Amino acid sequence: MNKRALVRRPGPRLAEGLVTHIERSSIDLDLAQRQWDDYVAALHDEGWETIEVPPADDCPDAVFVEDAVVVYGDLAIIARPGADERKPETAAVEETLRDLGYRIARIEEPGTLDGGDVLKHDGTVWVGLGGRTNQPGLDQLTALLGGVGARVVGVPLTKVLHLKSAVTALPDGTVVGYPPLVDDASVWQDSPGFLDVPEEPGSHVVLLDDSTVLMSTSAPRTADLFAARGLRVVAVDLSEYEKLEGCVTCLSVRLRG
């Protein structure tokens, strides 16, 4: 399996990034750059190749590259961000993926969709509704992914910015989330199952392989919980991005296949 990931370095206006569910706090740009470098280094250490999307210095949130696209197999669905300020972020992501040989589709007006609202596992795609993603965006994604055999499920979202701010999935498909921020955990109770975690940043994992997850250093109790389940944890400090409602998932798009 090729292990490649899109990344995009933080720009000079990072501190102006949007915040919706938390209070704004000051950002240390030098520290943010070091943390991004460490995040990319962690991917490299685990055998992942990173492909840099050209920077978008006028877009404060562009470092959160996950929101610009949904990749499923060889299909890249270019998002239409729910925040107008973020709409210019997608052009260079589309160009990069086109150059890599991906088939391109797009979410079109009046649909809006952020990639951070999309959680994929084993043929099922859950999509958060109520924040940056609207029903027309969900409907368009459903039609596009139906053509490649995926099942799309809408999930209510009121307490966080994106679905993957509330839940992500472990390698075995177990969905993990911090209960105060999950609107309806019953969506996952039957299959693949839902696991409560004791810290909000513990809700956010990036799967590096079948037994390894990347997560934040700010969730040590959750890291112990995952280790007890037999997972190997790679932890990185993302304090400056967490101040902007970012997390480990936001900073990359995994290209597997």
CATH class term: Alpha Beta
Number of strands: 15
From the alpha-carbon coordinates, what is the Rg to the nearest angstrom?
Answer: 17 Å
- The average pLDDT is 94
Order of helices and strands: EHEEEHEEEHEHEEEEEHEHE
The number of domains: 1
Question: Within the CATH hierarchy, at the fold level, what is the topology?
Answer: L-arginine/glycine Amidinotransferase, Chain A
Number of helices: 6
N- to C-terminal distance? 6 Å
Strand order of the largest sheet: 2-1-15
CATH architecture: 5-stranded Propeller
Largest sheet: 3 strands, mixed
Structural class: alpha/beta
Principal-axes geometry comes out as globular
Q: Strand share of the residues?
A: 15-25%
User: What share of residues is helical?
Assistant: 10-25%
Tell me the name of the CATH homologous superfamily. L-arginine/glycine Amidinotransferase, Chain A
Low-confidence regions: none
List keywords for this structure.
3-stranded mixed beta sheet; alpha/beta; L-arginine/glycine Amidinotransferase, Chain A
Describe the SSE topology.
Elements: E1 3-7, H1 29-45, E2 49-52, E3 69-72, E4 75-78, H2 90-99, E5 103-106, E6 118-121, E7 124-129, H3 135-146, E8 151-156, H4 163-166, E9 167-169, E10 175-177, E11 194-196, E12 206-209, E13 212-216, H5 220-228, E14 232-236, H6 239-242, E15 253-256
Parallel strand pairs: 1-2, 4-5, 7-8, 10-11, 13-14
Antiparallel strand pairs: 1-15, 3-4, 6-7, 9-10, 12-13
Question: Could you explain how this protein is built, in words?
Answer:
- This protein is an alpha/beta fold and 257 residues long.
- The chain has a single domain, classed as L-arginine/glycine Amidinotransferase, Chain A, CATH 3.75.10.
- Helices cover 22% and strands 25% of the residues.
- The protein is built from six helices and 15 strands.
- It has a three-stranded mixed beta sheet, with helices on one face. Strands 3-4-5 form a three-stranded mixed beta sheet, sandwiched between helices. Strands 6-7-8 form a three-stranded mixed beta sheet, covered by helices on one side.
- A hairpin with a 5-residue loop joins strand 9 and strand 10.
- It is globular, with a radius of gyration of 17 Å.
